[in-house]
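testing teh design pipeline on a random one, pls ignore if ur not involved
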């Protein structure tokens, strides 16, 4: 798969800084020739990842330029795995091939591409093994396999050998060597001295991302007057010494490319290899992949199916039958039944969505760089989960009716209840997806869950009717999607007249405290719930778009 020539990369005066003005890269200039294997080394926090991202154009430099000798097509393997653990290797590669290879590529060509990369990475024997069941080294190779599908001109890898035992790390470096020998330019950040010795050149970073050396490993030893790469780390440990070495290196070099911004050639990888599949194609592909992942993850399936069943059981144990009996209605039981049915629709929607995105950030980031749209991505999530929620909502209503916890009513009424509940689930699912896109990791998503649920219990107007809430509480009740679901359910079952008719002493006063809660036209509730669903979905897309930007087209600002 490594046909063609590697890319030539020229960085001139590249600097990067973070908020507060602290430099994370300081005036880095270097040239990487086609087919070279180059290591970026240096202590922790010296800017290896930052330089790698600047060279790849993922986070373009704040100053200086990065030039390529032809349109950039690159493979990028971040430190985290960029493939789903649930799917068999060949299958996950097949999805990746469909997503990344140009539109119109035939099925046979896709299959051949997958076969080729499996062979090239010595993974043919593991094609049917679940990615999660591969060894660490195999999984790293699998990440590379995904990137190799498009035959990129350059490969960027961030610490690919960390976590591998020395033998596997050496084997992995031999693989990179083969790739480079085949013509692909390979740039990797690494901590491991043994990796470095197999490279054509090393870029030593020190201090605030200052280039302390760039050249062949042997020359590095000569420059630092040592024969041990490990010792160079120690030499560069202090900030002052790092600056000294940096200045000494800069003074002695004649090879640094000039920082003139002429002919900065750069295009997205998709453009370099032909257009990838369109938005609808992406949506349908990701929908299939999501479904595939879902059904293979038995624990998830068990939780998705099991938790509604458990909750239904609890409802059945908690509520007595016949609360809606018109001759003897039990107003506060009916309020609670309606509220908890509404809350169930909300809760399952929220929890189904909450872990969908934050568990695969590394994958989304990478696929966004390859041209994936946030719209198709978010919609594909909703497309798989909404039908499941429809089943849960339907089941809730059917079981509670069968157990006489909900009253007898005609099909039209139950149709209304179902639509209300499903819209409520959809709004909650969208809120879950938005939260999942916004948090940093699954742990934060778990913390967000109670924060999202509490207000949807307190400010809904069931535990405490809206008319008797404090003013601030009443204001807060408006953005609670659950409020409109609860009121819509009450409207369809006409609880207001039920309580007015009933001889129960709790009827009229309780009814009064609810005011006109249940009198709004149902369509208004539906419109509000639908509005929430759309707004949250759009917000999820926007948040994700900011967090995982599409590939940057401009590389590097003007030189300082
Ligand atoms: N988003 C950010 N905001 C603030 N500081 C950042 C950010 N990203 C990186 N840095 C800082 O920039 C410096 C270089 O970070 P970078 O991740 O490039 O280091 P590294 O050499 O890859 O380190 P490691 O070996 O630990 O991976 C660090 O001091 C880090 O704290
Ligand atoms: Mg790093």
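output:
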């Amino acid at each position: 798969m490594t046909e063609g020539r590697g890319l030539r990369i020229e960085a001139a005066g590249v600097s990067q800084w973070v908020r507060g003005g602290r430099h994370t890269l300081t005036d880095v200039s270097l040239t990487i020739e086609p087919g070279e294997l180059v290591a970026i080394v240096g202590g922790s926090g010296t800017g290896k990842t930052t330089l790698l991202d600047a060279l790849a154009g993922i986070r373009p430099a704040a100053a200086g330029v990065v030039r390529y000798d032809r349109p950039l097509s690159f493979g990028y393997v971040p430190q985290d795995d960029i493939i789903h653990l649930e799917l068999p290797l060949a299958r996950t590669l097949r999805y990746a091939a469909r997503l990344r290879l140009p539109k119109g590529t035939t099925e046979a060509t896709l299959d051949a591409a997958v076969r080729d990369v499996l062979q090239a990475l010595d993974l043919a024997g593991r094609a049917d093994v679940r990615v999660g069941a591969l060894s660490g080294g195999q999984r790293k190779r699998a990440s590379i396999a995904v990137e190799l599908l498009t035959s990129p001109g350059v490969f960027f890898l961030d610490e690919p050998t960390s976590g591998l035992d020395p033998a596997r790390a050496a084997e992995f470096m031999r693989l990179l060597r083969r790739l480079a020998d085949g013509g692909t330019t390979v740039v990797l950040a690494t901590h491991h001295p043994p990796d470095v010795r197999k490279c054509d050149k090393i870029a030593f970073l020190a201090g605030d991302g200052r280039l302390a050396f760039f050249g062949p490993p042997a020359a590095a030893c000569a420059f630092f007057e040592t024969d041990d790469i490990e010792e160079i780390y120690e030499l560069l440990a202090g900030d002052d010494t790092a600056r000294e070495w940096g200045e000494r290196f800069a003074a002695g070099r004649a090879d640094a490319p000039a920082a003139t911004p002429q002919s900065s050639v750069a295009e997205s990888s998709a453009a370099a290899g032909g257009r990838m599949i369109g938005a609808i194609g992406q949506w349908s592909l990701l929908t299939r992949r999501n479904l595939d992942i879902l059904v293979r993850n038995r624990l998830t399936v068990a939780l998705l199916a099991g938790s509604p069943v458990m909750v239904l059981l609890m409802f059945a144990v908690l509520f007595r039958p016949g609360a809606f009996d018109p001759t003897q209605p039990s107003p506060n039981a009916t309020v609670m039944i309606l509220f908890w049915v509404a809350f169930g629709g909300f809760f399952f929607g929220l929890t189904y969505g909450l872990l969908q995105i934050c568990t695969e950030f590394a994958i989304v980031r990478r696929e966004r760089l390859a041209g994936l749209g946030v719209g198709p991505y978010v919609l594909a999530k909703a497309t798989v989960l909404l039908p499941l929620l429809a089943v849960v909502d339907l089941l809730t209503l059917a079981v509670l009716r069968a157990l006489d916890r909900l009253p007898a009513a005609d099909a039209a009424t139950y149709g209304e209840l179902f639509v209300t509940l499903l819209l409520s689930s959809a709004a909650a699912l969208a809120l879950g997806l938005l939260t999942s896109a916004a948090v940093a990791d699954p742990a934060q998503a778990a913390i967000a869950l109670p924060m999202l649920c509490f207000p949807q219990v307190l400010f809904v107007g069931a535990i405490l009717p809206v008319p008797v809430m404090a003013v601030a509480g009443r204001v807060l009740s408006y953005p609670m999607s659950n409020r409109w679901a609860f009121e819509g359910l009450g409207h369809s079952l006409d609880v207001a007249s039920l309580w007015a008719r009933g001889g129960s002493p709790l009827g009229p006063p309780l009814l009064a405290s609810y005011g006109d809660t249940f009198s709004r036209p149902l369509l208004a509730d539906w419109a509000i719930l639908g509005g929430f669903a759309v707004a949250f979905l759009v917000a999820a897309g926007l948040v994700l778009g900011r967090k995982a930007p599409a590939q940057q087209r401009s590389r590097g600002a003007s030189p300082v």
